[in-house]
Each structure stands twice: as C-alpha cells, then as structure tokens.
Amino acid sequence: MKAFRGTLIDFTGNPRTERGALRHVEDGLLVVGERGEVVSRGPFPRDPDPGLEIVDYSGRLLLPGFVDAHTHSAQTDVIASHGENLLDWLERHTFAAEARFADAGYAREASEYFFDELLRHGTTTAAVFPSVHAESVDAFFHAAERRGLRMAAGKVMMDRHCPQAVRDDAESSYRDSQALIGRWHGRGRLAYAVTPRFAPTSTERQLELAGRLAREHSGVLLQTHLSENQEEVRWVRELFPWARNYLEVYERYGMVRTGALFAHCLYLDDGEWRKLAAAGAAAVHCPGSNLFLGSGLFDLAAARRAGALVALGSDVGGGTSFSMLHAMREAYKVAQLRGVPFDAFDGFYLATLGGAKALGMHECIGSFEPGREADFIVLRPGATALLERRMASAESLEARLFLLMTLGDERAIEATYILGSKPLP
Ligand code: GUN
Ligand code: ZN
Known about the structure:
- This protein is an alpha/beta fold.
- The protein is 38% helix and 22% strand.
- The protein is built from 14 helices and 15 strands.
- Strands 5, 6, 7, 8, 9, 10, 11, 12 and 13 form a nine-stranded parallel β-sheet that branches. A six-stranded mixed β-sheet has the order 3-2-1-4-14-15.
- Helix 11 (324-338) crosses helix 12 (344-358), helix 11 crosses helix 14 (397-407) and helix 12 crosses helix 14.
- The two termini are 23 Å apart.
- The mean pLDDT is 98.
- Bound molecules: guanine and zinc ion (ZN).
- Zinc ion (ZN) is lined by residues 70, 72, 225, 263, 315, 318.
- Zinc ion binds next to strand 5.
C-alpha cells in the first residue's frame, strides 16, 4: 500500500444541487492499495502506520484526475488555425490534418504526443475522436493501454460532405466499428464510443447503422456533435427536412440514449433539452472551442432547468488548450456573459465527477470513494509567481480553487497519478 498526504478535495454529487457534495480534508491522507484502488481517504492520522510508505504533498491539493468529455486526438496539429467559423475551419484545416492519420506511423506518434499532453495537464480520462481510419483508433488504444489509462474513443464515421481521404461508406464504417469494438471495448480500462462525426457528414443509412452499433453492443458509448453553429443548424434543417429540430435527427436513429455524449448543444430549444435529459444523455460544454470558433454561448441555465447531465470538454483542436482548468475558466466567463451563477465548485465538479457521470464511469473514477481507481492529480497552489502572490490572501477553499481555475495551467499540475503510480512516459 502507498499513501499520499495533502489537502483532499472531491465530490460525492453535484455541489449546486446536493448539499454536502463537496468533501474537503485540509490535512488528509489518501491510501491506495496494491491494485491501484482507493483504500481510504480521511484526516492525516495522529499515529500513521509505520509500515506505510507516505508521499508528502503537504500544502498541495489532491483531486481526482480531470475528465475531458470531448476532444480530438487527430487535431493537435490544427490547434490555433484561423477559421471564419466552424464549417470554414473544418474544410480549410481539419479534414486535411485528419487525413494524415491513414498513416499508422504518424497516428502512433501523434497518439503518444496526445497522451503526454493530457497527462501534463492532469487529464486522466477522455472521450476522444481519432480519425475515420481504423488505424488511428488502434494507435490510440494501444498507446492508452500501454500507459494504463481509462479512455474512450471510436472510429469517426463520415460518409458524405467531406474529402475522399477522410470518407468511409455506411457499410464499411459499420464493419470497421464492429471489429474495433471486438478488439477494444472493455479491454482493461478501455471503452469504445460509436462516433458518427455529426449529422451533416453522415447519410441516413450511416446514422441508422451508428444507432444499431450502440444497440447491439451493450455498454458502448456514443459521441457526436450537436447544434454547435447556426449555419450548421440551418444545413441540418435542409439535409433532414423531416426533422422538427436537430436532436430529432439523432433520435430517429436511436442515438439519444444513456451513454451518449453530445458536444456543444448551443442552439437547443427547451423541448430538445428535455428529451436529452430524459434520455440520460449528456451535453458536453466546450467553451474554449465555442469562443475560438465564434460558435456561441452555451445556455447552462437551460441545461440545469432540464436536469441534463453536463460535462466539460476541451474540444482540441477547435479548442486551443488541453487544460481543463482553462475549460473551467472559459465556462465561468460564458456563464458570466449569460448571467448564470458558476463558481469554482461548479468548475471542479464538472471536470471530475461530472465528467465521470457523463461517461458512465462514476463507479470507477471521478472521486476518492473507497474502491475507486486511484487516478488523481496534485495541484500546486503557488505554481506561478502571480498564483503565489494571490494565494497569500485567499482565505477559503473556494477562493483557492477559483484562483487555480482562473490563473492555473499545466504548471499547476505537480504530478498526475494513474492507479496510484506515475504513468510511463
Ligand atoms: N463538428 C463536426 N466536426 C467537428 C470538429 O471536428 N470540431 C468541432 N468543434 N465541431 C465539429
Ligand atoms: Zn469536437
């Protein structure tokens, strides 16, 4: 057994709706067992067991690792590419970048870099879009498995309105996805996510087969984009004239379900929010991307009214940062513009247990409950000169977390642990 001393912070539920959901032990001890599971969390004992190896992180904050509920491992090399808007950015930069993932060697190198970045930023679990190529998914899962990470991903399905180099067809996308599910889903800590890119790049046949894959394979996730940009919403209306709204396109094919992750959700009406919530699907708020691409301002108040599951995503490369601290502060700013209350506890909840719930992994990760997998991070409150200066006058836990959320970046991540150990480089 190993143990870690520091300030322990985690959540047992959503602190905005559940009283006492935030747990905070100022001088705490997190004990991790042989298999990398949390054995206990609590105050640092008066007489610690002399046989216990204790790593001393006094003065630092220990939290469950961050969950990035929406990101693209094939878009690292388009981060910070100028685009007029979403559709222009996809056509001018993104499809070409993803085309390179047909090359398995490049996909392997890019996957390793992607995981290095995630871990540097304290992200231990993510729901990820590689590319349309099965090779990109194999490269992704091999790299995740080698490092022992809990990850979800799936082959991007896209059979129209995109260049040939990133286009599949409905039947082959079904067969390839099925083979990948057989190879990877439930292997160790890995989960497959059926991944139709978004309605405009799939024929109805492909969407039907995506829904079928999700039905046929119990426990797989499903991820796509929904209602991100006004031009996209108009295009969906033209392409699917029978649908009363965007969500109904996905509903028709059985894609609105528990374990479904819908990135963005900027232009949903109340009816769509209600359906999404009733289905147990999650909305993934990607504020960094929404601001960078000028897509719009997420309506967190509508999501809360509907009782929908919400998680946070970096949406790299539409988003420009791997950091979930960055995602939290951008979410705060969007909420400010919308006049919606959003505090540091909202931010840290969404990036930990909230994300785990959206991915259906809250019984494995996302908190320090005994038995959970001990993926955790060590945050250094005085990581930069400015943080150190400001922390000196931060009296409450909320103030400290708000400073980290607003001013922190990867320099604040002193260490990232996977199953209680530092991961392989
Ligand atoms: N909609 C369809 N594809 C994408 C993508 O790659 N990024 C974002 N942000 N939106 C999308
Ligand atoms: Zn995306």
